[in-house]
Specification:
The protein has four helices and 21 strands. It has 339 residues and is mainly beta. The radius of gyration is 21 Å and the shape is elongated. The chain starts with 12 loop residues before the first strand and ends in an 8-residue tail after the last strand.
Length: 339
């Protein structure tokens, strides 16, 4: 499964339609760090309605103007608006820093958390994480997203807002993206807020309280700062329903509805096979938790402290086996809460 923002070449809402499918596809050789999506649109009318409702509390929005380039209204964290000049779109790839962040630089191959809006030059908005009220996450700098993103977002500091002008060569190429109404001749404009990033082996505090080590005949050992070891004991019970059990209680803030970063080790039930985000070259899993209106099997994680370790038991599906999945709840970055 692939990350499902327009920057990642696929349109739609991000949600986990089936956890069993997520990890089954991971074993088929596809990265499980990405989540599934449905090819359905949600207009930015939802954002405009919410903006009107909260207009009395709105902050003053800065305006950024450039010669022969779009004018951008809105500060970091605010839903941006894009106004286009009368001239034709430039032919080259352009990145303009609107607000300079002061955080660490985003490294190549990390999992980037960002808010963004994408609009066709002189045309419609085709995608917006602001419209979904929760940021997106995607692996950056490794070909998982369109070239224009890989070439411009690596190396930016967190806290940065940037405008990207992306001609077809660095976007979707001559074929375009028909599901979004993007042709092979369209230049795209993105405004991106760089919120946070997570690299291989990310983990929270090691200060945890052990709650359980054996659940349903599955033994889990190892510190929360390293990949856990999953062992299926004799007489283990294959799950018939989806469940989440707390193994170690962390001391971080309680999870709120939003985008949560997790490390995982997944094992088809009763086997020695393992798929792990801890493995070299992998990145944590970012997934929406408890978002209203979305199918979300991770909803029970709301209220559990960050830094905790849990066991997810996934029952057998038509096309995949049952799974035991150990999740380490790493972080929920500021700005990643559902709003």
């Amino acid at each position: 499964m692939k990350r499902t923002t327009f920057g990642a070449k696929v349109y739609g809402y991000k949600f986990l339609a089936s956890l069993a499918m997520v990890f089954a596809l991971a074993f088929a050789g596809q990265q499980a760090v990405a989540s599934a999506s449905v090819a359905q649109k949600k207009t930015v009318n939802a954002v405009s309605r919410k903006a009107k409702k909260n207009s009395s509390h709105a902050k003053k929005e800065p305006v950024f103007k450039f010669s022969n380039l779009p004018t951008i209204k809105g500060g970091f964290g605010q839903t941006p608006t894009i106004a286009f000049p009368k001239n034709a779109a430039p032919k080259n790839l352009i990145a303009k820093t609107l607000i300079q962040g002061s955080g660490p630089k985003v490294p190549k191959g990390s999992l980037l958390v960002a808010n963004y809006i994408g609009q066709i030059w002189g045309g419609k908005v085709f995608d917006s994480s602001f419209a979904r009220h929760v940021p997106s996450d995607f692996t950056i700098g490794t070909g998982q997203v369109i070239p224009g993103w890989d070439k411009t977002l690596v190396g930016l500091k967190t806290g940065t807002r940037v405008m990207l002008v992306i001609p077809p060569k660095y976007g979707y190429g001559p074929s375009g993206q028909s599901s979004a109404g993007i042709t092979g001749k369209d230049t795209l404009v993105f405004v991106v807020d760089v919120i946070a990033f997570y690299a291989n082996g990310a983990h929270s505090s090691s200060n945890v309280k052990s709650v359980k080590t054996v659940v349903a005949g599955v033994k889990i050992t190892g510190p929360v700062t390293k990949a856990p070891v999953i062992q299926f004991l004799k007489g283990n019970k294959t799950p018939k329903t989806l469940s989440i059990t707390l193994l170690d209680r962390g001391n971080g803030p309680k999870i709120k509805p939003g985008l949560v970063m997790m490390e995982y080790v997944a094992a088809p039930w009763g086997t020695k096979q393992r798929q792990s985000s801890w493995a070299k070259g992998q990145v944590p899993l970012g997934t929406n938790v408890g978002i209203p209106g979305q199918t979300n099997e991770f909803g029970p994680l709301v209220g559990i402290p960050l830094g905790s370790r849990v066991l997810l038991q996934v029952p057998k599906a038509k096309t995949s086996p049952a799974f035991a999945v150990v999740l380490d709840l790493v972080a929920e970055p500021k700005g990643a809460y559902y709003n």
